[in-house]
Structures
1.
Amino acid sequence: MARSAGEGSAGTARAARDAALCAVLGEAPQVVTETLYSLARRGVRVADVHLLCTRHAERAARTRLLGRSGALSRLAAVHALPRPRARIVPLRSPAGRPLDDVRSTRDNDAVARQIVQAVAALARGRRPLVGSIAGGRKTLGVYLTLAFELFARPGDRLFHVLVPPEFERTDFFFPAPGEPDPIDLAEVAFPRLREYLPERADEGPSLRVIVDAVQRRIDAGDGVRLRFVTARGRVTAFVGDWELRCRAADAVTWLAFARRRVACGCAAPRQCRRCFVSPEQLTCDFGAWVDPDDAKGTAADLRAVCSRIRDAMRRAGVPASWTDRAGIASVGRRGTTRYGVPLPADRIAIDVERSNPCAAARATAK
């Protein structure tokens, strides 16, 4: 049957919202269906399931989860849920052979790298990512949690599934319709450190190398990134993954200072006289954007802009330690004050369309 254009768009949008589940798995594959059942009750649809497991766990998954008579098919049939596509990702030894179990430090290091790479690859996709740490050895859950800390995006979530002792090591996979639900799906809070990742972190460095690099950047306050996007003449600013809601004129003023920083190319905190300038030295007349009735921008106007930008970052949840580095900062005494963006030029990205954001800001101000 042919779809109308509207149906196609709705189907595409819905598919983009469906989640991918990444789960570490031991010899109790029930945790997968328990997680899927509980996610469905929360309104989370899962389209793809990625099972990271040793060879023993893979046997249990293929025998009890997969296939037409497996628990995944039964769950979909009994509860009228879409049946997700399932993919088994065998964990391998340092020599590349399928692991029966994780028994040594070298095994641990190899497994850690594979789990991190799997999560990094999924985080590059369009689907929201859901993780389950309920299966397998404790180290597998630890590494999956760490991988989420490093690569998860806003909206990606991590869970652990719990059932009463009498349901453990049984053939319970999910409750039948009308039965009491004994499953407790606990969401696991975790910090997101994605902004601190070094270049090419998802291309194969060991977990230890990635963690050491992230820690150095945290210690140096080096994870801040600032990006400006113009669309239809309007400037939108992003600090890390946070989209900021600020006045159009403030965003364009901020962009003007960011342009000077990028053109200068330096990383000096505040001493550079090429990219830290007085209000009169801005290439665009920002005063017309801030107050259309008084085109001459003053230092007082600019201080108000700086304050509103800091407030916008705080409202968005940007870490306090980032606001001074990503916003417009000042240096010098009043009367000789210069302004600029302290963030190094290589941490600022400007995606500009052909339309003129300065003109758009003036139009918005009017």
Note: The two ends are 52 Å apart (CA to CA).
2.
Amino acid sequence: MPPLSHTKLAHDSRVLLKASIERIMDARSAVHNGQWVIGMYLSGLAVECVLQAIVGRHDPRHDARHDLTQWLKRCPTSLQDALTSPPLRDQWNILAARWYNGMRYLSEDGMLGYLRDGSRARRQRWTTRDSKDQRARLARGSRKRS
């Protein structure tokens, strides 16, 4: 049997599931070390990998790009219902609104601006107190690395 090509291997459900587990472990490590931007990116990437793995089991087309909402639409209805209904709906909406593949290119200041300015139409609004608390936590993490 010939070896799988790089593209076919990257879209194999088993490989994607393992990658999702590795990415969430990497994300936890990054956040633990105060690397918020890469932690946020890797967390969303882990979700994308899981959704792709689920879709890939019944549909090999790889055409939803990096859009979590589009990947979810291609998943079984039971998963769609679970993620878009209470108690997970709010968390899914926050993730789907805030995460995008291009965040890997943002600096810490760029990420703070992205979150603060609400550059994504569906992002959750923080209360003034929550926003100040979040900025303080991020500032403490930045000082640790300096």
Note: The two ends are 52 Å apart (CA to CA).
3.
Amino acid sequence: MIPQDRVEAVLQRRVESLGGAVERNVELTRLEGQDGHVDVHLNHSGTAFYSEKGLMVVAPLPRDHFRIVATVQQAAPRPSLDDFAAVLKERGPETGRVAIRRMLWSSRFHIQHRVAGGQGMNTGIQDAVSLAQACTKPFKTAMMDHSRSGGRRG
């Protein structure tokens, strides 16, 4: 079985080789298509940071609070503000100043075993393919119409 991070890395490299970009933590809020034109409305929420040391996700919450989730090799029984500050420093944004002012709650958990099959990722990929097909359909229709008209407009 191939680990999910390797599959994602291969897919990301392929998208980028085709001139695309992978955006994470983005919600499609509205998709409108008409006359060969597609408007895509996105909501960017949360940020995922990847490094050789692991993954860190920073998700916004109400009242200027954030949830930070990170993978680590060994976690303290009760992760402290200093533990999270160290992870943020090593994996967070390279530009700008980011600091944790106070921590309201912390915990740790350990994954005992993984579920085989990767259905979550497969479902996400299927959704992406369906969305791509829906987004490109108006363009394909417009190109076919343009081709049939001999390249003439109007």
Note: The two ends are 54 Å apart (CA to CA).
